[in-house]
Specification:
Layout: H1 2-25, E1 38-41, H2 42-51, H3 53-60, E2 64-76, E3 82-86, E4 94-98, E5 114-125, E6 127-135
Helix pairs in contact: 2-3
């Protein structure tokens, strides 16, 4: 009886380890290959959050957005993460954080440059946040 319980426990631990290893090694698809749910300007996205954050969350949160705008600032963090802020004409903008685990064709951006970035909307924290961003060609 004790051997069966021990064997069952070892078997369950092995299955749990295999499932954990699978999910640990599972890669998120690159945002560059995903289809955008919505396309809008940085000013439109910020204005929606400024007018009604709850309604904007219901419409945009967790969705893949293609956001067009002018670069206000861009920088690279010590860990290699690229962050680009798109201008909205307000004090705050749309902060696009690139995925550091994905190879990007381009990571250098100049203030004043117009471009379209695609990422997953993560809500409002002064700036509207987009995560796992990539440049839309």
């Amino acid at each position: 009886m004790k051997k069966r319980i021990l064997l069952l426990a070892v078997l369950l631990a092995a299955v749990a380890a295999a499932v954990g290893l699978y999910f640990y090694n599972l890669k998120m698809p690159s945002m560059a290959t995903q289809k955008a749910d919505l396309t809008l300007s940085a000013a439109e996205l910020y204005a929606a959050y400024e007018a009604d954050e709850a309604a904007a969350n219901a419409r945009y949160l967790g969705k893949i957005l293609a956001v067009e705008g002018q670069v206000r600032e861009a920088n690279t963090l010590p860990d290699g993460t690229v962050k680009v802020v798109l201008d909205t004409g307000k004090d705050f903008g749309v902060l696009c954080e690139f995925d550091p685990n994905t190879q990007h064709k381009r990571t250098d951006f100049q203030p004043g440059e117009r471009l379209t970035l695609q990422g997953e909307c993560a809500g409002l924290n002064f700036d509207v946040l987009l995560s796992r961003c990539a440049v839309v060609e």
